[in-house]
Amino acid sequence: MSKVSKENKQAFAIHNVSHSAILNVCRKQLDIPIHKVKYALVTGLLNGAFKSLENYGIKLNQESFSIFYDAVSAKLSGSEEVEYEWSEIEYDAIMQIRSLHCG
Predict the structure, then answer these.
(1) Spatial separation of the C-alpha atoms in residues 25 and 2, rounded to whole Å
(2) CA-to-CA distance for 25 and 49, rounded, in angstroms?
């Protein structure tokens, strides 16, 4: 196997590990009943949950927000396979988190 292929595989593995690590942190933060996640979202409390990812050494950027968004969506739908249908208020609240921390 060529050196370039090995490096690409290692980079891909590192990316997957970091994706999994961020997803695991998000899941732990959202380990509360769905109605409380909805309340935290519309009142702005999930802003603090996303901001706290920095405490785990995770940079707040578009990629980490995307993973956070997916974790919140999965929690609200009850499944990773089912896409959650956001209300307008919920969607605006989650996008506000992105605009505050991801430019």
Answers:
(1) 35
(2) 10
Q: Where are the alpha helices (DSSP H) in 30-61?
A: 34-43, 45-51
- 65 and 98 Cβ atoms separated by less than 8 Å: yes
With tokens 């089912």, the residue in question is 82
Q: pTM of the entire structure?
A: 0.81
The separation between CA 70 and the C-alpha centre of its own chain, rounded to angstroms, equals 6
Tokens, residue 82: 């089912």
Question: Phi, psi at residue 60, to the nearest 5°?
Answer: -85, 105
Taking all residues of the chain, what is their mean pLDDT, rounded to a whole number?
86
Q: Kindly report the length of the chain.
A: 103
How many Cα atoms within 13 Å fall on the side-chain side of residue 92? 5
Question: How many Cα atoms are found within 13 Å in the side-chain-facing hemisphere of 82?
Answer: 8
Residue with tokens 């929690």: 75
The per-residue pLDDT for range 82-101, each reduced to its tens digit, is: 889 999 999 999 999 999 99
